[in-house]
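Give me structure tokens for this 624-residue protein.
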Amino acid sequence: MSECSRRMLGAWWLLNYGFSLFLGWGFLQNSQPSGWQAWLYALAVWLTYSLVYLLPAMLLSYLAWRFLRPVHSRLAWGMGVLFFGVSFLLIFADARLYNLFGFHINSFVLNLVTTPGGIDSLGSSGGAEAVFALMALVLILVPALLLLPARWMAGRQGKRSLVLGKRWVVVLLLLGVAERVAYGVSSLEYYSPILKVADAFPLYNRVRFKSLAAKLGYQNKRPRQVSAGMAKGELNYPLKPLRVLPPEKPLNMVWLVAESLRWDMLTPEIMPNTWKFAGESLRLDQHLSGGNGTRQGLFSLMYGLYGAYWDAFLREERGPVMLDVLKGQNYQFYMTTSASFTYPEFDRTLFAAIDSADLHHGQKARPPWQRDIDNAKAVSRFIRDRDKSRPFMTFFFFESTHARYDFPESSVIVSPYLKDVNYALMSKASLKKDIAQLKNRYINAAHHVDKQIGRILDTLEQQGLLDNTIVLITGDHGEEFMEKGHWGHNAGFHEEQIHVPMVLHIPGQAPRVLSRLTSHMDIVPSLMPLLGVKNPIADYAQGHDIFAPDSPGYVIASDWSGVAYIDDQYKFYVPYRSMSGKQNVLTTRDDRDVKEAGAFYKSHMATIRQMLKGAKLFTRPRSE
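Here you go.
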């Protein structure tokens, strides 16, 4: 490579780094530094990581210049533009994602992008798709636009400018060392302002001096850190074969689950049909989902296991034993969703053993609120036209309460509401301004879902089925509206994201309100004995029978990165070992910081260790 070419490449890299600083300003804003030490640290990370994120593109563009330019100059340039453009696109997308939802590009986001139906599930307006496409095109083209000023800069460069460039590289390296030392010391001192800043930067390399500090006699102020192992190997589920004595009069099952339905939507004003039915049934007031996302939430509901097992069951396409029991008793099935059975991959997990002819999707061409109406009518029709000589189960997953929160004008009970949900134009600042109107959309959508629930309940009553049918009404998880600084779900185990309504109508059970802590994981253990299963619960589930006199007093929830212990007083989050950037998080149940963690660790570690064993209990090493 000639000297001129090197200068031009160096100038181009410098300009790309400058644009990376511009995009990386979003990470700096997201970090919200508190105090001058945190501000200095945040600035140092911003300066260094704006370069770190470009290193792969720099290396690849150098290789393209080195080997392709002598053969085809334009191709070499084009490859370099593509590498930097993709880097800019990822930086911008991650900063926007963290700003809106509080998490970086992770396995959930990759699954969303790569799984059929994932992008459609977001439910944003068509205008958002057009804006996103335009943004992506601009970001990818920016490196090409920087070629002209790079050529001009290369023509004016001399040896002195190259020397100055090397000095800036040294400065950035020293800044990188300094901010890592600052993080390591903050980790020892448990200085949260700096630790929280690091969370806002994706792929941040956390340096710790735990071993060195111990050798020097330093007393580590950081609470003890624990991590969870992920379920690997082959499934060991159930732990023992089920012993089933089918009941003489099998009970029908109707499961009605609404996307993102949080507990405080169950009111006489918002959900009058469900509220009235709850007064005639068992209402679980302190009921938590088994996760803050659809997969973990519905997995825990249908299997009675930690949502952390999702990937292991997906790999083997293994459905829940509850449906095995129903199939063995000749149940007929009608499973429907207004979303999709392929995203999330319910056709390969929850309903893997159900005949595809019994899985019914909504029509994608119709809006979610219309799909919910269509499917409610279809479920009612199935109940009326079923084979009355056989018991049945129907499962219905509503979509109207999923962002962008969809409803017809006839379901409006609160206004004003946000007329359009355009993700491309959203930011945390705009959310704070519009959050009340956005939540009004959600309330109207919940009211619309309640109308469809009422339609199905009316059909059950008209058919005289309530005396021999178990009816379950709940949400897969909750939805936050900036109460704890986030919108949506998948961002934490805040009450708003995991507290859901749970209404259970079970023939023979007197109507009442149960106010102790319960979980989605407790439903299967509570229902399986009614299906004639004689095994101890521990053979097939990890929840507890809500009708048993004793209660463990805590529940377990999962997300894409770890598991959490939750009781009436505390919440304790444990990341998977593979999530090196994640920390243990201990808060009160209402998400306040715990000033003195020692008491919790002393009294709860035995239970936490048991929880960590539970995350691998239903798998075993793969046989050769």
